[in-house]
Each structure stands twice: as C-alpha cells, then as structure tokens.
What we know:
It is a single chain. The chain has 21 helices and no strands. By secondary structure, the protein is mainly α. It folds into 3 domains: 1-181, Growth Hormone, Chain: A (Up-down Bundle); 246-415 and 466-493, Up-down Bundle (Growth Hormone, Chain: A), CATH 1.20.1250.20; 416-461. Helix 12 runs antiparallel to helix 13 (214-236).
Amino acid sequence: MLPTLIEIIDTSVVNVSLDHIRGSLSAGIDESTWTITSYLVSNAIIIPITGWLSRIFGRKRYLISSIALFTTSSFLCGSAWNLQSLVFFRILQGIGGGALQPISQSILLETFPQRQHGMAMAIFGVGIMFGPIIGPLLGGWITDNWSWHWIFFINVPIGLISILMTLSFITDPPYMKRIKMKIDYWGLAFLALGLGCLQIVLDKGQREDWFSSSFILWMSIISATSLILFVILELFAENPVVNLKTFKNISFSTGNLVMFFAFFNLFASIVLLPIYLQTLMGYTAFLAGLVLGPGGISTMFSLLIAGRLVTRVNPKGLLAFGIIICAYATYLMSKFTLEAGFATVIWPRLVLGIGMGFLFIPLTTLTFATIRKEAMGNATAIFNLLRNLGGSFGVAFVTTILSRRAQFHQSHLIEHLTPFDTPYQITSQQSAQILDYGGFESSLSQYGGLGVIYKELLRQASMMSFNDAFYLTCLLMISILPLVFLMKRPKDVSGKHSTEVSH
Length: 503
C-alpha cells in the first residue's frame, strides 16, 4: 500500500504548488501545467501494460525497479534547476509510478485467500481513496512551511522503506516468473500514442476551449485512430501487451464500467468543492482542505466496515448501497447556496466518503471474483487504467460544465437588469444610497451601484453552474445502478457462495 499511496499523492500534490514552482523556475502558467500533464501522460501509458511488463521482467524485479525509478526521479524533481528538467524528471516519475497501483493490487488479490479479499482491498483502498484527499493538503502545507522541493523529497524515505519491505516479504508465484516472449512493438506504440494524446486532451481541453483549438482537435484524432488500431491489433496478437479478451468476462467488464463512473464522481466532487468554497464562499485553501479532509477519514472507516461485511452479506447489495449513498451525497452538494455554512458543506463530503468505502470493496471483490490468478496482473492493470481515466474524464467534464453553464446563467439573469424591472430598480437605488453614505459623488454612486449589482449577478450565475455540475454528476452516478445486477457473486472452488462458506 505504501508505494500506491505515494504514487497517487503525486498525481495531485503538484497542483497546489504550481504557482510556487512557476515563480521559482520563471515559467508561464501554460508552461508550468506541463509538470502535471507530463506525469499523467507517462502514468497512463504504463498502467495498462504493467501485467505484460511483469511477465517479461518478473513481477518482484519489476516492482522493485519501478519503486527505485519513482524514488530516484522524485529526488531529481526536487532538485530540478529549470522547467525543462522538471518536466523530464516528472515523465520518469510517471513511468516508475504507473506500475505501482496495479502490481500492488494484484499481489494483494493473489496473496490473500478469496474470503479475505475484502480486508485486503480495504488496505489497498486506504491508499486509493485517501491519496487524492491528502495530496492537496500535504502539498499546500509543505509548500507554505518549507518549499515546493520537499513535496518530492518526502517520497524518498517512503520509497526506500517500500523497497526494503518488498525485498523482505514479496515473492513471485511460479506463473509470474520472468519469461521470454515476442514483443508486440506495434501494439505498444499505438497504446502509448493513443493514451498519451487522450490524457493531453483531457488535461488541456477546457483551457484550450476544446475542439475550437486545432491542437486539441488533432490530439483527439490521433488518439481515437491510435486506440482503434490498438484494439484491432491486440485482438489478433500472439502476445498482446494488453489482453483485451478479459473483457469477455461480464462481471469484469461491468466492474470496470462502474469503477470508471465511481471515480468520475469522486474526482469531479473533490475538484468542484474547493473551487466553490474559495471562489464564492471566501474560504482559504486551508479551510477548504478541512472540508475535504473528514471525507477521507469517513472513507477509511467505511472501508474497514465494508471489508468485514463483504464476506457475510451479498456484495451486490453493498455495492448498490454504496452507489446510492454516493449519488445522494452529490445531490446534497447540488443544493449548496451562497449562504451555506461550514456544517452544510462538510456533511455531504462525509456522506460521499462513506459511500465510496462501501462501493470500492464489494466492487473490487465482484470484479475480480472470476479472474484466474495467472490473469490477475493484466486484469488489475486494466482496472486501474479505467479508474484513472474515470477521474480524468470527471475533472474535464465538470470544469467544462462549470464554464459553459456560468455563461448560460449569466446571459439569462442579465435579461432582468433593465430599468423597467422593479426588483432591479429597488436594488439599484439601495446600492447607490450605500455608496452615497460612503462619500461618493452621486454620478459615481449610480454607476457604482450598477457594478455592485453586476458583481452579485456573476456570483449567482456561478453558484447556479456549480449546482448544475453537481446535479449532472449525481445523475450519471445513479444511472450505473442497474449494472450491479449483471455482476456475479464470488464462489469458492467447491462452487458455494462465499457467504455460505463464512457461515
């Protein structure tokens, strides 16, 4: 869980330190965002081929090499002397970090017997769920109190501990030993090109106004073409880098789809909340972090509870419960107003944390219940890729909705700003009187009153766009509920359901 935790933290820890990095390295805003994009791109390329690389190098050897590369590149990132060097070292960091999530998950699923998969995934879930929460908080605190270099240096001791523990406790089963095989170069090239361009589109699409930008348009065309060719090649390849035939398993395919939308919901929510709190409610970064933090704690508790319950009750019931709770939490967020208090905004985040814990454990159990151990590395790689892509799509979706709906509501509300509208007349007079009392000339107070009204209009339009984004995310989340019925309950070797075995 340790390498998984630091790898996930590093996907978000740079975001809050970006201004400090930009100022320190004399870079522009658009240039500095490549420190995030470069990591996400290399990370996305490596994740799906982790199972294939484990077979080529041997899983333990590949895991240790990945942790070593991640740790070394983290030190180099903290020592970067200009933006170009930082981007290069972030690419290396993403290459090293991409393997850590799927390998860790496959080791846990293969090592623990199926009746203990729930608790094994609870341990893994602490890193998966808590990482996105603690990342921004940790990054902000370290940057404010030390310097941005230390957001990378803190990975070094954790990485060294992970290497020592892997050497001491992890062993490769016979089917994960190093084997010689023909390398699928074309499949590897199309996968890297397709996922790399896709991640760039998702990360920079809103900033470039999507398809009105020729850069985003060409990246999208290259990505779509490459991924289509990749799928066609892999279906007929002798030794595919990603075995897509695993998707013939209905429970596995359904589980990946549910996980995609679950992390779509999670990342959309934890991105929207701080923006809402800091831009409209006047919260500091620290106070916004206090709203997010308790959700991570509630997730940890619900993970442990779900880990124990998953072998005693039907996992499909727990999964449905988790989906409903997550959708309900997002619905509560869609009811936020400009007068919301601290308790009002923290409660839905706590509820979402509970829902994610009850969703993650049964979903993982059901998804991998019928996957052979020999295929677990490939399956966990696909699962983690879909999870990460879900988060990327979620962030891209809500930031776009936020921008477009704010424009829509602004144009709708401004229709009422006319001298013939009675509420407008009253508000305009009151604003002008307030400015008159402040000692402004009457002409200035008149135009100043209009400025006050228009500023309030922008706030209300922005608030309504947040409501829309949360509400649409809620609808997407609840729409996956019927998929639960397609998944099969896990069975042991004798064919009995796991709940019967536990009793």
